[in-house]
Amino acid sequence: MPATLIGLIWLAYFIFRKWKFRKYLALLGFVCFIVFTNDFLANSFLKAWQTEPANLGKIKAQNYTYGVLLTGMTNTLKEPKDRVYFNQNADRLLQSMMLFEQGIIDTLYISGGGATALRKDLQESRVLLSYLESINFPIEKVIIEDQSRNTVESARFASDFISKQRKILLITSASHMPRAMGCFAKEDFNVVAYPAVYFTNDELISLSMFLPSYEALLKWTILFKEWMGYSAYWLAGYL
Predict the structure, then answer these.
(1) Could you give the angle at the alpha carbon of 195 between the alpha carbons of 122 and 156, nearest 5°?
(2) 211 or 98: which carries more pLDDT confidence?
(3) What DSSP string runs through 97-154?
(4) How far, in Å, CA of 202 to CA of 181, rounded?
(5) Which site in 10, 33, 133, 201 is 20 to 30 Å from 100, CA atoms measured?
(6) Radius of gyration of the chain (CA)
(7) What ranges make up the beta strands (E) of the chain?
(8) What is the pLDDT of residue 120?
């Protein structure tokens, strides 16, 4: 990750005091700091990678039996357990609920386990189901898959619940969508992307975008994670 990379470079600068090229480590660390905290660069690269927003008009013109929601939006380890704690990816669920309420999808299919070795009861899809129950969402229109541990398994296990002949609407983060679409296409699903969770902005260039910021570091971290994930999936033949 970018922050780790910067830290390791500067740590090497202090450790290798007698190395004749030591000064280049300091320069490299400074350059990496400038690049990875530059919001203009981070915003531009992340926008180029992520999937563009779906055309809602075209989406509404078609009916989808299933909206497939990928998990990764709650903190299942937080106490007390009488509520659901959401993170920044909660937009996935909010967009899914909007699509259901507008009649664009008939059934919400939630895919994701995420249980830990010590707690087998922490499947995130079940946590989300309990939240939907608490707000009186029509549970008879919800299907959960609680065994998958990653996007590959989400795509594979979906065939146990959904016919591959049906067109499905895939809902996940815009930065994660290229990898998710590849996995579902690999399993021969007829899938349409509905990306959510955008960390980028479309405002005009401003001076503040060139000042060091932690938001830029966050965007680069998301981008690095997806680049590495996509590359690993491609090498493994999952895409």
Answers:
(1) 55
(2) 98
(3) HHHHHTTSEEEEEEE-----SS-TT--HHHHHHHHHHHTT--GGGEEEE----SHHHH
(4) 24
(5) 201
(6) 21
(7) 64-70, 105-111, 142-145, 167-173, 190-196
(8) 56
- Identify the burial level of 85 via C-beta atoms within 10 angstroms of its C-beta, where 0-12 means exposed, 13-18 middle and 19 or more buried: middle
Residue written as tokens 């995420």?
114
8-state DSSP, 201: -
Is 0.85 surpassed by the pTM of this model? Answer: yes
- Identify whether the C-beta of residue 155 lies closer than 8 Å to the C-beta of residue 189: yes
Query: What confidence tier does 13 reach under pLDDT thresholds 50, 70, 90?
Result: confident
Domains located in the chain, CATH noted: 2-50+213-236 (no CATH), 56-196 (3.40.50.620)
105-136 pLDDT, tens digit each:
999 999 998 644 445 556 899 999 999 999 99
Question: Which range has the worst mean pLDDT, 9-18, 53-62, 177-186?
Answer: 9-18
3-state SS class at 195 = strand
Count of CB atoms within 10 A of residue 125's CB?
A: 23
Which helix (H) or strand (E) is 233 found in, with range?
helix 214-236
d(CA 68, CA 148): 13
User: In this predicted model, what pLDDT tens digit does every residue of 56-79 receive, in sequence order?
Assistant: 999 999 889 999 999 999 988 888
